[in-house]
Amino acid sequence: MFELYRPGDSFLHRMRPGAKLLALAGGGTAIFLLPGLPALGAVMLAVLMIYGATGLGLGAAWAQLRPVLIIFAVLFAAQVFISGWMTGAFFITRFATLLMLAGLLTLTTRVSDMVAALEHGLEWLRPLGLNPSKISLALALALRFIPVLAQITSEVREAQRVRGLDRSIIAIAIPVIVRTLRMSDAIADAIEARGYNPDRP
Amino acid sequence: MLSTRDIVSIALFAALTAALGLFPPITLPATGVPITAQSMGVMLAGALIGARRGGLALLLFAVLVAIGLPLLSGGRGGIGIYFGPTAGFVLSWPVAAFVTGWLFDKHRGQPHPALSALYLIIGGIGVVYVIGWTWLAVMNGWDVAKTMGYALPFIPGDLIKVALTVVIARGVRKAIPNL
What is the pLDDT of residues B23-42, one digit of tens each? Predict the structure, then answer.
């Protein structure tokens, strides 16, 4: 399964996902409350040092920012235009620091461990009428369906290429969705035939 | 209560939204704004599987992104998305799919194409813009009304997606009438 996780053996890799989430929530809130650019800069430096200490390296920190560089540039320009250079620099530094901090969780935690932590956390919702086993099933199914759908999409695209329609969203989306929906009844039957009962607590 | 069938269709539409992220973004010549097919997943979920399942499908998609899968178009993902400036858009999707689905649910059978388009504009554009752009404005300390002005260049692209979704939803319903 493709994911953003980077294998490693640092203290962050070994930390429990729930603890990392709490630390991220705390750290993120603290960054939002920081008043000035110097304080933010110091926190950013600290985050970068964690990237170094965990063996992820500065390249991984940069990779967190690269996909949003264009958005950052547009926001910075708007910010400079509306309220000046200092404010622009402050908001961009804050977003960048938050993104890199959050990236630490994503890079050091396997999706399977996050799912396990989520399922554990969901037990608390049972008194509210939520059924954690249904949520687990939905998560597991979606994880399985993503590669299947990517596969179906590329098959349909291949077929439509023959007709010169491989760039038409309509000619691809309709067959993909119809095939997918026809699959879903068979899948639901298969799940129940194997003894799954959605209303069992 | 959700049946097994409901859970399967929720998971399928979450995965479909992910698959739509694989289409390369198209840049509109007039405005230079890139449009991605992904937000069509929101409209399609609302139009095809209704408020409850559609909303939950997009909520599931948001959770999958949060736990570290690179499912957003351009291969972005991870919990950092929810700390970034565009978090409001991803978070608006479950609400948008729910509202779109609620409008479609009120209809017996298929609404007229023009009415479908109106429903999609309210749910798929209106809800997304109100939540997404307000979030962006608040995170940047901007005036919300002024920021909405920056949203205007994105509207033509989203109207194209509405038109595409109307056609796709009709095509799907023709193939599977008792959806």
Answer: 777 766 655 566 788 989 99
In percent, the amount of chain B with pLDDT more than 70 equals: 95
Task: For chain B, positions 60-119, list CB contacts with chain A under 8 A.
Answer: 60-61, 63-64, 67-71, 74-80, 82-86
DSSP B46: H
Q: CA gyration radius for chain A?
A: 22
Task: Please tell me whether residues A100 and A145 are part of one structural domain.
Answer: no
Q: Name the residue with tokens 């603290």.
A: A30
If one counts the domains in chain A, the total is: 2
**Cβ atoms within 10 Å of B154's Cβ, excluding its own:** 19
**Each residue's pLDDT expressed in tens, for chain B with a length of 179 residues:** 788 899 999 999 999 999 888 777 776 665 556 678 898 999 999 999 999 999 999 999 999 999 888 888 877 888 888 988 889 999 999 999 999 999 999 987 778 999 999 999 999 999 999 999 999 888 888 888 888 888 888 898 899 999 999 999 999 999 988 77
Beta-carbon contacts of A38 under 8 Å, excluding residues fewer than 6 positions away, are none
Q: Is A164 exposed, middle or buried (0-12, 13-18, 19+ CB in 10 A)?
A: exposed
Instruction: Say whether both A42 and A104 belong to one domain.
Output: yes
Write out residues 50-109 of A within 8 Å (CB-CB) of B. 64, 67-68, 71, 75, 78-79, 82-83, 87, 91, 95, 98-103, 105-107, 109
**Domain assignment present for A85:** yes
Domain housing A139? 131-193
pLDDT tens digit sequence for B137-159: 888 888 888 888 888 888 988 99
A75 and A140 in one domain?
A: no
Find, among A59, A46, A53, A71, the residue nearest to A13 by Cα: A53
State the total domains in chain B: 1
Report the gap between the CA of A177 and the closest CA in chain B (Å).
7
State how far the Cα of A163 lies from the Cα of A101, in Å rounded to an integer: 47
Check which CATH number belongs to the domain holding B151 and give it.
1.10.1760.20
Mark which of A110, A145, A164 sits at the end of a domain: A110
> Which structural domain, as residue segments, surrounds residue B91?
4-175
Q: Is residue A115 part of a domain?
A: no
B122 touches chain A (CB under 8 A): no
